[in-house]
Amino acid sequence: MRGSAPDDVHEEPRFTEYETIFVASDPVQAHVVRGLVEAEGIVVYLKGEALSSALGELPVTVQQVEVQVPVESTLRGREIVRRFEKLPG
Predict the structure, then answer these.
(1) CA angle, 88 as apex, 48 and 33 as ends, to 5°?
(2) Three-class SS of residue 86?
(3) In the chain, N or C: fewer CB atoms in 10 Å?
(4) Which residues touch 32 (CB under 8 Å, ≥6 apart)?
(5) Can you give 3-71 as a three-state secondary structure string?
């Protein structure tokens, strides 16, 4: 039949469990780590990032953001964070 899709086209939604690999002291630091991790091909979620704009008049330095990766990427993600933490500066 034209215009109809096979029954197996509709997949069940897949949910991924995430693990925190780094807690950034501010959103800028979170985005730096996110970029490093994503450059290695790992999906990243920044938990708490959306709250930073809702905090209003609090200084940026008090806004913590958790850098999270899928559980199966935790070890690789933590290794990237270790390299980041060893950088001078």
Answers:
(1) 25
(2) helix
(3) C
(4) 84
(5) CCCCHHHCCCCCCCCEEEEEEECCHHHHHHHHHHHHHCCCCCEEECCCHHHHCCCCCHHHCCEEEEEEH
User: Can you give the pLDDT at residue 26?
Assistant: 84
Q: For residues 13 and 7, what is the distance between their CA atoms, to the nearest angstrom?
A: 15
pLDDT, tens digit, 9 for 90 and up, residues 17-35: 999 999 998 889 999 999 9
For the domain covering 18-86, report its CATH number. 3.30.70
Rounded Cα–Cα distance for residues 17 and 89 (Å): 33
Q: Residue 45 is encoded by which pair of tokens?
A: 């979620």
pLDDT of residue 76: 98
- Is residue 41 classed exposed, middle or buried when 0-12, 13-18 and 19+ CB atoms within 10 A define those classes? exposed
Give the tokens for residue 78: 């933590």
For residues 18 and 70, is the Cβ–Cβ distance under 8 A? yes
Domain ranges of the chain: 18-86
